[in-house]
Specification:
With 441 residues, the chain is an alpha/beta fold. It is built from 12 helices and 21 strands. Belongs to the Orn/Lys/Arg decarboxylase class-II family. LysA subfamily.
Length: 441
């Protein structure tokens, strides 16, 4: 399962962006996040082109929660996308990177007053309001500052997206948004319209979940959301100009997963949108989207060095299990522990060998810390380099210092060049915020 610019070079090594994975390890160490910049750019261009061809009245924002540092902000800006942020830290990253803040959307289900004020002071283009408390706080702030703030209202369409329960967000039982079904969303919209000119509501927003391998739930969401637009217009006389359907398109983590292509996804979404607009007699809104994983997930590879290889007896067939231990684990990729995530793995320095042995890939933390429960690889020795595929989303951004591990470095690779975009933490970084009270000194 070679992805993006990956290939096997003449030495039998994995190559990404024209860079030999083994050379990357020699220069930057392991664990190492490697991001395929050219494929990120191609994905941004292709996704944008698909929707421009089918529905020109649209805007694409990159969901930065999937992968964020200042370098990706520059790539996203250069490729003409907007940026979706969900915290003061994500917003500050965009500010420091010089990203155009009129192209930033601020999300969050429990935004602090600090975050709301920060967004207004720096001129964030749109704030996606989650609840009535936030709506009222934002109106007070805008009035105090003498500003008009553009907003969308996040609503809950009440759809079960049939993905992992921890990444489902569109159902009724969720912390996000206001329910369409019980009338909360309409009440909030009515109130928001009364807050003009301090708040300018331009539309409604929903997000139904992540890692979706078909577009069926998006079709359902679009029908509900466009129907709600008609309800809003009939009840208030105001028709939303913007319809934001979030993100959620999945990627290939394993060879047996087949998410829709961008073209297939675009055909389905725009077909559903046009049908719903006709059904409910609604004029064309501006269609907003927030893909994240779909743009960067398959562009990331994490490189590890193999340490201890241990064979243990088990009661099941074949009677033994081989543990291959790496120099990272749940601190650099918590998704297997959080979401039961499954990955493909390659032996980066032995790419030509047949995959004839089944092993379990284990991390080195003081937990069970299994990265991959079962996978087939070829011959493996201590010191070999493992490459875990499709780690471009929700790995780097979820890294922790558990067991006081240092967070890995991250590099962008393109045209045979590797650029450090986030340095590896040092042990001094791990303790730099610690304080020993005087009474303990």
């Amino acid at each position: 399962m070679l992805l993006g610019t990956q290939r096997v070079n003449a030495e039998g090594h994995l190559e990404i962006g024209g860079c030999d994975a083994i050379d990357l390890v020699k220069e930057f160490g392991t664990p190492l996040y490697v991001m395929d910049e050219e494929t990120i750019r191609e994905n941004c261009r292709n996704y944008k082109a698909v929707f421009e061809a089918r529905y020109p009245k649209n805007d694409i924002s990159f969901a930065s929660k999937a992968f964020l540092n200042m370098a990706i902000c520059k790539v996203v800006e250069q490729e003409g996308l907007s940026l979706d942020v969900a915290s003061a830290g994500e917003l500050y990253t965009a500010i420091r990177a010089g990203f155009p803040l009129d192209r930033v959307l601020l999300h969050g289900n429990n935004k602090s007053l600090f975050e709301l004020e920060m967004a207004m002071d720096f001129g964030v283009g749109c704030i996606v309001v989650d609840n009535l408390l936030e709506l009222r706080q934002l109106k007070t702030l805008a009035e105090k500052k003498g500003k008009t703030q553009k907003i969308l209202l996040r609503v809950t369409p009440g759809i079960d997206p049939h993905t992992h329960r921890r990444i489902s967000t569109g159902q009724e039982d969720t912390k996000f948004g206001l329910s369409v079904a019980n009338g909360d969303a309409l009440e909030a919209i009515t109130e928001a319209l009364e807050f003009a000119p301090h708040l300018k509501i331009t539309g409604i927003h929903c997000h139904i979940g992540s890692q979706l391998l078909d577009a069926h739930t998006h079709e359902q969401a679009i029908d509900i959301m466009v129907g709600f637009m008609r309800t809003i217009a009939d009840a208030t006389g105001w028709m939303p100009e913007d319809l934001d359907i979030g993100g959620g398109l999945g990627i290939r983590y394993t060879e047996d997963q087949h998410p829709p292509s961008y073209e297939e996804f675009g055909d389905t979404l725009i077909g559903a949108l046009r049908a719903a607009l006709e059904k409910y007699d609604v004029p064309e809104p501006r269609l907003l989207q927030e893909p994240g994983r779909a743009l960067v997930g398959e562009t990331g590879t994490t490189l590890y060095t193999v340490g201890v290889i241990k064979r243990v007896n088990i009661p099941q067939d074949p009677g033994t299990r081989t543990y291959v231990t790496i120099d990272g684990g749940m601190s650099d990729n918590p998704r297997p522990q959080l979401y039961d995530a499954v990955y493909e793995v390659l032996v980066a320095n032995r790419m030509g060998e047949a995959k004839d042995q089944e092993v379990r890939i284990a991390g080195k933390h003081c937990e069970t810390d299994i990265l991959i429960q079962s996978t087939k690889i070829g011959h493996i020795e201590t010191g070999d380099i493992l490459a875990v595929q499709s780690t471009g989303a929700y790995n780097y951004v979820m890294a922790s210092n558990y067991n006081r591990f240092t967070k890995p470095a991250c590099v962008f690779v393109k045209d045979g060049e590797a650029d450090l975009v986030s340095r590896r933490e040092t042990l001094d970084d791990v303790v730099r915020l610690d304080i020993i009270p005087e009474r303990l000194a």
